[in-house]
Amino acid sequence: MSLRRRLLVFGALLPAALLALALFLIGLVLDHLLLESVDRGLTLQAASESVSLFDRPGQDAHLHFGDSALVADLQRLHHQGALYGPDGARLLAYPADTVAPERLTAADVTRAPALQTRAIAPGERIRELALAIDSPRGEPHAIWLAVSLASNDAALAAYARAAGLIGAAVTALMLLLQIAHARGLVQRVQSLHAHMQRLQDGDFSTLPPVDRGTDVIASLRDAIADATDKLRTASELQHRLVADAAHELRTPLTAMRMEIDVTLRRERSPEQLVDALTRVRTEVDRLGELASKLLAMATLRRAEWERVPIEAVAAVRAALDSHRAVAEPRAIALQLHAPELAPIRANPGPLRQAVDNLLANAIKFAPPGTAVDVTIRDGDNQLEILVEDRGPGVPPEHQETIFAPFRRLHRGIDGAGLGLAIVREVAEAHGGHAWVTPRPGGGACFHLVIARA
């Protein structure tokens, strides 16, 4: 079943059916209440007649219909009555053209009021009551009372007409409103479906149409728009990464090819061959470093980030110890400022790689004879690692771009331009962030923040 039909069925037709059922049940209740009111009136009248049937001198049986001051009302309401003697013959009747039975014995009825409905003509019904009663002399008599149900039938017919008109009007209104609502809702859903089809085909160029609603579909549209924007950004970054990687790979390969071509043009001495092979080896090392960094970034992006309890101070101290051999020849002091312990849940391998990249970057740009300071700040919601050097610093316009893959401020410095990109990947995978700020007094201060799991 299509969405439009489902909305019409459950939004209009089913409520209309339930409304019709409710109106029908209300009609049944109304009929019962009206009939109960008639029965109550007949029972009261029977009680009144039974105590006064024989109250005249000589204890002659009689009915009080004609003597009542409300005889006009009784006639208007079509009240009827009859009295039957011990032999079942009708003694008295009111009015003269009553539809009471010709004969009714006390044995035919009970001493409790017996009520029933009888049709006396097509479309005309009466409610009748029969009751056995003894005279003061002990003679069995029967009394019969009846009232027309024409007013009840008229009321029920009026209710049926009104209920039918109301039900038809409400059904038509619900149907019209639901058709309009279904049309708008289906258009909104179909636009999202068409957009999802474009995403499936790899088209991230456009956002889903603007939705002015405030319901869950509008929220879904906003979520899809946000996801589309992120997919587009990721796609652009992927294409840029591939292009940059191809460029970075082409450079050392071109240098190696040129070196080999030059070497092969004429006969070379062993010293010249060693020198050429050394330069080729340098480019091979550069390719190896680039491949390792690309593999590390790819591993970070597809890895399952299982966080385990680690001690951050011990991990950072181990990273510092591994870099002292590089820092000491240039008289660069590696200094740690941290509390005694800083336990946290993290992925130890990527976190160590991020700290190594920050230390290698700081040592690379730190002038000889200066220091690289590493500070650990242990907070309630996050752990922050700061790595400060006293180098040239990072210009404000490049403080964000240096975290993009293959972005290097100084082309003459060795490196693949992926170290800081990996740092940011690790930080964001841990629910944190990485950024750089100027160090007071000169240099750069890199921040690596890890959120507590």
From TrEMBL:
Q: Which residues form the Histidine kinase domain?
A: 244-453
Source taxon at top rank:
Bacteria
What organism does this protein naturally occur in? Nannocystis pusilla
The keyword Ligase is assigned to this record: no
Q: List localization entries.
A: Membrane
Which key words tag this protein in UniProt? Kinase, Membrane, Phosphoprotein, Transferase, Transmembrane, Transmembrane helix, Two-component regulatory system
In alphabetical order, the GO MF annotations are: kinase activity
- Pfam families, sorted: HATPase_c, HisKA
What topology in the membrane does the UniProt record assign? Multi-pass membrane protein
Which coarse location class applies to the principal site listed for this UniProt protein? membrane
State what protein this is by name: histidine kinase
Question: Which PROSITE patterns does the record associate with it?
Answer: HAMP, HIS_KIN
Q: Which residues cross the membrane?
A: none
- For whether the record's keyword set contains Membrane, the answer is yes
